[in-house]
Structures are given as structure tokens and as C-alpha cells.
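Dear H.,

Thanks for agreeing to be a second pair of eyes. The structure we're designing against is below in C-alpha cell form, covering all 149 positions.
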């Protein structure tokens, strides 16, 4: 039975490596996660928005989630990172809306040199892209299946 499990894991892994759609989705999600985790102002905004969204919930139900990053050699961590991204979708959308609606002089995330501003705008546009979220949901399902077997 163990050999069969190992063979299925290898076959699915090879399929995922060859799947352009899965690879593109996983790369975009990883790029977004890496960017989110690299900016303390973004992490603070995510925390603050979650606290505000949780304000009406009973104290025991108030949860502040963090952005998790996948470990390269662990398939389950890829699934968990994508799932966490999906759990943060509403928070990230609020953050992107707030930042994109601010006048340039009041922006907190799209700051720095031209390259940093372009990267921030690109990541905020990814957050606002419904196709990204649909693809991420599909990729997360495939990742889970692969990690589970």
C-alpha cells in the first residue's frame, strides 16, 4: 500500500509540474504571499482590518490570521498557504480598496521608489482580480488532493 501511495504522489507531482495553469496560479499566489510577508506596513494593515472586522463578534470568536508561506518540499504546506490566502481574501480586498482609493500623498503601501510603487500596485491589482481568486481556489483543491494522497 505504501508503494502505491508513493507512486500516486509522484504521478500527481509530475502532472502538477507540467500543468501550466497550476504552475502560473501557484507562482502568482507565492509571489503575492512573499510580497505580503515582506512588508510590515501590509502585515499591520491586515491585522488592523481583521481586528475591525472582528469587533462585532463575541470575544471568543475573534481571530486574527497571519499570512503563511509554503515550505518548498511539503505539499500540504502549499495547500495550507493557498487556503490561508483564501481565508484572508475579504481582509486583503478591504486593504486593496483602501489603498487604491487614497490620494497619492496619503498612500501607505504604494510608497518608495518607482519600482516599489509598481510592485505594490501590481500586487494590489492581483488582490482585486476575481480570476486570481477562482484559480487559487482550484489550485488549492488540487494541492489538497495531492497532499492528502
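And this is the sequence the design step returned. I haven't edited it by hand at all.
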Amino acid at each position: 500500500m505504501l508503494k502505491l501511495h508513493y507512486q500516486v504522489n509522484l504521478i500527481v507531482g509530475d502532472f502538477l509540474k507540467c500543468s501550466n495553469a497550476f504552475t502560473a496560479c501557484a507562482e502568482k499566489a507565492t509571489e503575492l504571499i512573499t510580497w505580503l510577508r515582506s512588508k510590515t506596513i501590509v502585515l499591520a494593515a491586515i491585522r488592523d482590518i481583521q481586528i475591525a472586522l472582528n469587533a462585532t463578534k463575541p470575544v471568543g470568536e475573534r481571530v486574527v490570521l497571519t499570512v503563511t508561506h509554503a515550505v518548498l518540499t511539503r505539499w500540504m504546506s502549499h495547500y495550507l498557504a493557498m487556503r490561508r490566502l483564501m481565508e484572508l481574501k475579504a481582509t486583503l480586498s478591504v486593504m486593496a480598496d483602501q489603498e487604491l482609493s487614497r490620494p497619492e500623498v496619503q498612500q501607505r503601501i504604494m510608497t518608495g521608489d518607482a519600482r516599489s510603487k509598481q510592485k505594490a500596485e501590481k500586487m494590489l491589482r492581483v488582490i482585486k482580480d476575481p480570476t486570481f481568486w477562482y484559480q487559487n481556489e482550484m489550485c488549492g483543491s488540487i494541492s489538497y488532493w495531492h497532499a492528502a494522497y
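Two observations from my side: The chain has a mean pLDDT of 84. The radius of gyration is 17 Å.

Warmly,
E.
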